[in-house]
Amino acid sequence: MQYSFASRAQTLLTSPLRNIRALAKRDSFISLAEELPAEELFPQHSLAEAAAAVLSQDPRSLQYGEAEGYGPLREWLSQDLGRRKGVHVQPDHILLTTGTQQALDLLVRVYVEPEDPVLIESPTSPGMLQVLRLQGARIIPIEGDEDGLLPDELERQIVEHKPKLLMAAPNFTNPTGVMWSLERRRQVLERCAKHELLIVEDDSYGDLYFADAEGIEARERIPSLFSLEQPQGNHVLYIGSFSKTVAPALRTGWAAGHRRLIEMMTAVKQMADWQSSLLNQRILQHMLDSKHFDLEEHIRMLNREYRTRLKLMIELLKRKQWKHARYAVPEGGMFLWVELPPGLNGDALLRAALLKGVAFLPGSMCSPSEKADGCIRLNFTHPGRDELLLGMNLISEAVTEFTARS
Amino acid sequence: MQYSFASRAQTLLTSPLRNIRALAKRDSFISLAEELPAEELFPQHSLAEAAAAVLSQDPRSLQYGEAEGYGPLREWLSQDLGRRKGVHVQPDHILLTTGTQQALDLLVRVYVEPEDPVLIESPTSPGMLQVLRLQGARIIPIEGDEDGLLPDELERQIVEHKPKLLMAAPNFTNPTGVMWSLERRRQVLERCAKHELLIVEDDSYGDLYFADAEGIEARERIPSLFSLEQPQGNHVLYIGSFSKTVAPALRTGWAAGHRRLIEMMTAVKQMADWQSSLLNQRILQHMLDSKHFDLEEHIRMLNREYRTRLKLMIELLKRKQWKHARYAVPEGGMFLWVELPPGLNGDALLRAALLKGVAFLPGSMCSPSEKADGCIRLNFTHPGRDELLLGMNLISEAVTEFTARS
């Protein structure tokens, strides 16, 4: 029969990431395209212990749970956000989601109507763009610099478009890795509050702060937009996850914010999938509460290793092929954003790289305009050091061929 | 600030089920309102073994997985559907979802535009109605009798409305527990195929077939719409889950169908939450593949126990308060659908019952019209025998009070 799909659904099939993933299944393929943590660093043993404990206790850990998510995990999170990030939020202002991607999707489903204007930090993550496209939002990119979003530009667009939302990731923005300055955070918050604009603050990467490898104190960190607004504020929905700090397969993220936002998102969550896995939430909570596991120490270990991998990548970019490439070295996160040597196009380079058995994310996927077509996003957290070396060699080869040709 | 939610999102907050759930958290409260399996029957020990095995092996069980779901579990499912249900489907025509609720939601998101007419078996599950309401579908209920949907009525509505979809659950429909006859299945399928109408066949309850307690052979079962159409058909999307047969907290359901449908649903799944928990899928697959666990034997045990609980409920309905109530005894599933004595309203009875510390699902939640207002849905799978007795006593008391008053 002829299936007649909803018109916007067609936009979902255009993602080149789908083809990259299909190729990446080949054994020797190296992908610097994805957003994966290093699996050899997962707290596998601690999670095994937690799973054994949870499954030997209460059979209700296998039952349906509450749409909001497991209460004791929301309580743990409430305390952890307060202690480590100066974010004060009650457990009943937190919704547990299937990763931050679901938190974004749920918020957009209850908040955005087709044709509604939505501001996004540009460039941005492909996942955020897809969510907005399926909902039919009018996507308005806002530029930034090395300190974060440009506040005057932001205000100009707010006044012109009267948008429903601003979506941003002030800590190590995906893909650029920019960390917004405190001053810039204050300015952005002030403009949004003045115009009553809701901000979705994605803090998926904030814990991957490499200064933390040296034992930086939590209070030395730049506060989130969410915490800057406290105690009275309600312009920010704060989202994050355990995918980068513990393990993605637990599929546990969260949204925290005003009770009305959380209530509405919980209602749509219940309709979308009833709830995320209670078993995973209980295993996670059991491990986090155990004396044998220290999340801060674990994150510090991750940061030491990821910082080393980033340094290696930076070294490899000092080769002559990359002489005319530009990049800022991020202080954390998972990605290096590279502006290719002049004349090179990310999509074309990717096609050449795929033939060599390596992938990265072309900039075109991170922007609704053509502005990022000359850029690529390189992931340095998943490939081990050998793989990283080999992968960068292959990409460098592809760059050489293009440069020689032009 | 003033949040301005999308207009349809408001429909999400009206569910009385939300209040029932809040009340049900009280310790002594008895709920016959929910759709819960009996937790004391979960294969807790086998799952603990499987979790230990999976977590001691490959750390990739904790990594991001594929949006389609874990390959070996899709292969297992493909074989199981063939062996036990005569459903022949290749693993790459299967998408693993977060329960059947997500399968419904994903399909509706890619297939239905606002104002599109959609036919549903009536009465139907509250979850199905919510999905359609949020998408803005025009919901058209189709009546049935004790053999299933009425085919002439179905065809009349197809011709009048040119709908996008028919949503139905031929095996122990939620809430009525009706099992469609083979003849009726053929008729419905033939009308839909003639008019090129896609059917979403929800087989969440098909395994809970109490004749199976006596060891009925798989081939004696009435085949699904999906398998009746094979090998050439493509008018049916077949959905189901492990929530009722293994455990809900694994949040593992599936959709099986034509490659184009599965591809589009996979794309929207990736946007919605990347993927369901790979860890859960691997634990489940490990247990199902293990020699120490036999799913058929496990389901047979469930059916013996659930049949006993249903019998007890039927006995309790023989009391005088229920003399003028009407119900058909289902051959399986999780619910008994009761038409209350004349003059009684399900919502009003629920308010009285809640004060007594017991809940059920009022019929009003299962229908877009007022047709089911005089009915209630009773769950007999979750409450243990004592709880079931006590719960039914309390509901009977409420009925007596109403009947005495009128």
Automatic annotation (TrEMBL), chains A, B:
Pfam families: Aminotran_1_2 (PF00155). InterPro entries: Aminotransferase_I/II_large, Class-I_PLP-dep_aminotransf, PyrdxlP-dep_Trfase, PyrdxlP-dep_Trfase_major, PyrdxlP-dep_Trfase_small. Keywords: Aminotransferase, Pyridoxal phosphate, Transferase. CDD domains: AAT_like. Its cofactor is pyridoxal 5'-phosphate. Residues 46-382 form the Aminotransferase class I/classII large domain. GO terms for molecular function: transaminase activity. This is Aminotransferase class I/II-fold pyridoxal phosphate-dependent enzyme. The lineage of its organism: Bacteria, Bacillati, Bacillota, Bacilli, Bacillales.
